[in-house]
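Sequence in, structure out. Go.
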Amino acid sequence: MKGINLFIIALFFTISAGAQTTSWSFDKAHTNVRFSVDHMVISEVEGNFNQFDGTVWATKEDFSDLKAQFTIQTASVDTDQEKRDGHLKSADFFDVEKYPTITFKSKAVKKMGNNTFKLIGDFTMIGVTKEVELEVKHLGTIQDPWGNTKAGFKITGTLNRNDWGLKYNSVMDNGGMLIGEEVNITCNVELAKEKTNLLENKK
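Output:
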């Protein structure tokens, strides 16, 4: 009987630990997904993806065990120049009709310093999946005036677009490339804590 009681207690604590996993969703009104790439060596072109969604899960308040996934709608690319946006949506780049989304799914997280992490995961674009590392900084967690819990993050990373087959380019007269190979990504993310935890969602 004593063994059974100990088993029940252990099971209770296991379930309780699982219940502490918290789900956070993107507050899209206060989140942006931005990128920049060199243009003709001497300048940069910047742009955004205006349609996206994502979820983060964590059991620790400092997010040091976070898991994340997000989806970007490629047709929402916006560089504030209609002709260029049309080209980016074409088969030369994102081929949005064939590949409507870019996705990321985390596989591991490593704490690097005070409120900073390295997030490792699979990044899928135009049908190609590669492992990437993103730098994540937790900017803080607060309660807003309406009683909602919010958490802020800054996510940065650099991708070589050639790794995903985005090789469109032109060679200039000086030998330089028209478009840089490395793409810098910056995401300013505000998360909203969901009202229920994962265990409750499964009921």
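Check: The helical segments are 2-19, 82-89, 198-201. The chain has one domain: 22-194.
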